[in-house]
Amino acid sequence: MSAERITVSLPAELVARARAAVDGGEAPSVSAYVAEAMRAKAERSEALGRLAAVLGGRPPVAELNAVRARWGLPGLPTP
User: By its UniProt entry, which InterPro entries does this protein fall under (predicted)?
Assistant: First the structure.
């Protein structure tokens, strides 16, 4: 896969986390860390799209929050 150089501005906290991941051996570089995060986000979005197609639409936020609560995750904002 070829790489394209871009410039982005990120919150300092996220940059610090990426650098800590590199320092801890979790990623070979900050670029690789960011690329993996973007890949994971794209894969999640695609999976949610497939799930919505199977279910006939996106699950209601209340149902998503019930699952998130069981997993110990914070709830999503309700519309």
Answer: Ribbon_hlx_hlx
